[in-house]
Amino acid sequence: MIIGIIGLGLIGTSLALSFKKEFKNVYLWGVDKDNKVLDYLSERKILDVLGKDITRLRDLIGESDYIFISVYPSGVVDVVENLKNYVSEKVIITDTASTKFKIMNYMNRDEFLRKLFIGGHPLAGREVSGPLGAVDNLFTGKVYFLCPAFEVSEEKVEGLRRIIEKINASPIIIDPEKHDEILAFTSHLPQIIAYLLSYVSVKEDNLSFFGSGFKDTTRISKSDYNLWLDILKENDIKIKEALVEFEKTLKDLIENLERKDFEKIRHIFKDSREKRLRLRD
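Structure for Prephenate dehydrogenase, as requested:
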């Protein structure tokens, strides 16, 4: 089995480590535009072939069974367009971007790609970006969303599902628009709030006075901000809807505080606690 990975950051390199761990007979090739990343991975011999230019791997691309694209959401389409001339019809092309609606709209409009492309998004990550943060168990126990294009065969969907299950993740088929709506609340909104909380709270005269609660809450604000700006652009409508709902709740809290209606605030806190207790850690 030949698997290609384009974009060897945290997710891409973790995929490579996971495939190497779980599959005995897998041949891995990878592409990244960063020479430092390529040097780092070359020294560790995680992949069999590394390159900076897709066109120089055209023969290997044509023989590949799976190609994972792990770049910023806005870059997925360009990568796929560069691959189109080299892939065979047997290949499954997928991505790992945390937005799906715009990407899948593009794929479904293309007569060739809508037979090959399955959108993907593992609900996995760390605040440490790049291949240095990669681990071989990043996807263990994690949900892995799949959004098949309109004409992808059941055989291809099942093939990718088996690959995902082999790295101990849980594949779930989902509508792309529904995916972006859910993730706006469960991933994108929390990330924005973490950034803003750090932005508002951290000052030169209080750096030594933060407890574990603040550090736990804002841990993800150490993530790659360029990636999150890209996600904001790609899922702007759904994220705005989530922010508006959050803003309304925040305004209600402020109004209750001004009226000294602590009983209503208590109910908000109580409901919040009960909702959080329903989540599995």
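Residues 155 and 167 are 19 Å apart (CA to CA).
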